[in-house]
Amino acid sequence: MVSLTTPLIPHTFGGMKKKKEFSKIYELAAQLQSLRRRATQLGMFVDDRELLSCAKCGLEEDVTIEGLLIVVQPSAPGSDTGFRFSPVGKSKRRYRCPQCKTILMCGNEA
Ligand SMILES: [Zn+2]
Question: What is the whole-number distance in angstroms between the Cα of residue 109 and the centre of ligand 1?
C-alpha cells in the first residue's frame, strides 16, 4: 500500500533541490555579468551585440586576436583609429559613428 504522504516527500525534496540549483545558476550568472563588465572596462569585446560598421564612411569595428575591440578604417584593417562608436539612448541599438556622426542601427530593430 502506498500512503498519501509518500508522493509528497520526493516532490518537496525535488523542489528544494531545484531551488538550490537555481541559486547556483543565479550565482554563476552574476559572476558572468561582473566578468563581462570587467572585460568591457578593459576594452574587450564581450559579444553582446554585433560589430558595427558605418555604411556612410566605412569606419568599422573589429576584434583583435587578444579580444580587444578596435575601430578601423577599411583602408587600414587591423590598425586601431582610437575612435569608438558611442551608444545613443539607453536601448543599445543605436550608435553614432565617431567620424561622420551617422546614427547606426545595431541588430534587428523591432
Ligand atoms: Zn561614419
Answer: 19
Domain ranges of the chain: 1-42, 44-110
Across 94-106, average pLDDT? 94
0.70 surpassed by pTM: no
Q: Compute, in angstroms, the gap from residue 25 CA to the centroid of ligand 1.
A: 41
The alpha carbon of 60 and the centre of ligand 1 are apart by a number of angstroms equal to 8
Measured distance CA(5)–CA(7) in Å, rounded:
6
Name the least confident of 29-33, 47-51, 62-66. 47-51
Query: How many angstroms is it from 85 CA to the middle of ligand 1?
Result: 9
Q: How far apart are the first and last CA of the chain?
A: 58
Residues in Cβ contact with 72 at an 8 Å cutoff, skipping those fewer than 6 apart: 59, 60, 61, 62, 78, 79, 80, 81
